[in-house]
Design a protein that fits this description.
By secondary structure, this protein is α+β, with helices and mostly antiparallel strands. The protein has twelve helices and nine strands. Among the domains are: 146 residues, Jelly Rolls (Sandwich); 50 residues, Arc Repressor Mutant, subunit A (Orthogonal Bundle). The strands form two sheets. A five-stranded antiparallel beta sheet has the order 1-2-9-4-7. A four-stranded antiparallel beta sheet has the order 3-8-5-6, with no helix packed on it. The longest helix is centred in the middle third of the chain and has 18 residues.
């Protein structure tokens, strides 16, 4: 059966007329964006063709539905917060009897497959456990967090590293929902890995950095790298990058001739609001107050 990617499906008659908003979220590959959409649909047949992407939907409304996903069958009331994973490579039958609203994320196969292979070696045999209505877990919250981060255009605050980490955690959470045990993690990065990744982030702290790039420097999977980095530095990579931005911004603010907007741009924020949020969160004061009250300028 012919598969379609989510990008193509978005333009179909099944989706396009009911698309409320569409965002492009963080991804481990610039050429393979993660799509997020919100849909508001009338009653009707919203069956989907076989998808090549990893598609997860979370309900935002109460509605009656008849749903067939691979071997799973359901007829009844769907509730807000319930979520489902589309069976990849198989058509999904979805008949909805009431007006409904959804949020969906589609992770391209080029991103999803390497993550699944590294995090969940037996996913080919165990993934069917997810083909049912899901009532619990962090999946809806992670999708919502990605939605808000994408809505902020990603470049603000932590940017790429943060969104890459969320996508990785989202895929990891699928294992938890399928009741697959996760092996405990011990240890951190080796000495040479610590030095290499620290030098890389130090040199590029003002630019978007992909989690895949950092993991590649160390020869590790993204999930393994993220856990090892935290074990070595005590904080996740995106917070390490933010800390460097904060310290450099504090140095630059010592020059009273530099506008705050210019300082923000020099440390990687396209708008001064991103730098202001960072200062408020970490120091409790704005950059202008820091310049005046702490530096005395």
């Amino acid at each position: 059966m012919v598969q379609v990617d989510f990008e193509t499906h978005l333009g179909s008659d099944v989706v396009a007329p009911f698309l409320v908003e569409r965002l492009v979220g963080g991804t481990t590959s610039i050429d393979a964006p993660v799509h997020l959409v919100q849909l508001a649909q009338p009653p009707g047949d919203f069956s989907d063709p076989p998808m090549s992407d990893l598609v997860i939907t979370a309900g935002l409304s109460t509605h009656r539905t008849t749903y067939r996903n691979a071997d799973f069958r359901f007829t009844g009331q769907a509730m807000p917060g319930e979520w489902a994973v589309f069976a990849r490579g198989e058509a999904n039958s979805i008949i909805i009897d009431d007006p409904s609203r959804f949020i969906a994320i589609a992770i391209p196969a080029s991103v999803a497959d390497p993550l699944l292979d590294s995090l969940w070696p037996d996913h080919a045999n165990q993934f069917a456990r997810l083909h049912r209505r899901q009532h619990a877990g962090l999946v809806p919250q992670l999708i919502e967090r990605l939605w808000h981060r994408a809505g902020a255009r990603l470049a603000e605050d932590a940017g790429q590293l943060y969104c890459d980490a969320l996508v990785t955690v989202l895929v990891s959470e699928l294992m938890h929902s399928a009741q697959v045990p996760v092996a405990p993690f011990r240890g951190g990065l080796a000495g040479w890995q610590r030095r290499r990744v620290a030098e890389y982030i130090d040199a590029a702290f003002d630019r978007d950095i992909a989690l895949a790039d950092l993991a590649g420097l160390c020869g590790l999977s993204e999930d393994h790298f993220a856990r090892a980095f935290r074990g070595s530095f005590g904080i996740p990579p995106y917070r390490y990058q933010l800390r460097l931005r904060l310290e450099r911004a504090k140095e630059l603010l010592a020059d009273p001739e530099l506008p705050v907007g210019a300082v923000a741009a020099m440390v990687g924020f396209p708008r001064s609001q991103g730098l202001t949020r960072l200062f408020l969160r970490e120091l409790g004061i704005t950059p202008l107050r820091f310049r005046r009250d702490v530096l005395g300028h």
